[in-house]
Amino acid sequence: MERPTWKRIAGAVVATAVASLIGVGCYIDNPNAAKPTGADAGAYADATSDSATVGDSGEPDADRGPPLCTKYGGYATMEKVVADLFGALVADCRVSRFFTGLTPERQAHLYDCLVKQVAVVMRCPDIRYDVDNAGAECRDMKTSHKGLSIRGADFDALVQDLVVVLQKDGVAQADIDSIAPSLLGLRGDIVTNSAPGNARVCDAGGGG
Length: 208
Ligand code: HEM
Hints:
By secondary structure, the chain is an all-alpha fold. The chain has a single domain (31-190), classed as Globin-like. 51% of the residues lie in helices and 0% in strands. It is built from 11 helices and no strands. α1 (6-14) packs across α5 (75-90) and α5 (75-90) crosses α7 (104-121). It is globular, with a radius of gyration of 16 Å. Mean pLDDT is 78; it is low at 10-47 and 49-55. It binds protoporphyrin IX containing FE. Protoporphyrin IX containing FE is lined by residues 95, 98-99, 102, 106, 109-110, 113-114, 117, 138-139, 144-145, 148, 150, 154-155, 158, 183, 186, 190.
């Protein structure tokens, strides 16, 4: 199976045929992994953030009901959300250069890991934030964003784009609100530049 590249992903979004082009099931590479319980759950939290715990085993529970992942169509929907997010990010001149400057290999790694991260936040059963589809470790948020000099406004832009994508992909506002703390809690590990505004300025050329 050919691994995704940014252009393939973004192109698929533009063609509004993301799910079918990416291929449902292509990236479901971790369906039978051990559930993140006990020490594993701690390792999972460490792998994503030094300061925030996200996701769980994906089991239904009395307080929260069935996992959002299941409610919205399963892992394939998580892939579509992240593919749509990538399309939005490369079209968003505030942050596009962070992503278009990556090699195809780094783009694919980011895509794979972000799908798993969203899947864990949405409680897809048996999915862990562990490795990309080539087996490379998905790093914690502090390590993976170190040196990128991401500003608060850059973080806000990505979150705005994600919210729009989730809305477009049919996720109810109440459910978006319920997962927001898990993502917003990562801010402290990702934002390393306290300067105002976006790091990358939108010019007449727009995104890219
Ligand atoms: C809630 C917000 C965010 C989440 C959940 C998130 C998640 C991730 C994940 C899972 C990775 C891959 C980890 C790895 O390399 O193993 C990653 C890498 C990356 N992220 Fe984020 N991210 C967020 C915010 C941002 C923002 C605001 C920017 C820039 C505007 C950004 C830019 C990048 C870049 C450029 C990489 C690739 C770094 C590299 O490969 O060297 N991220 N992110």
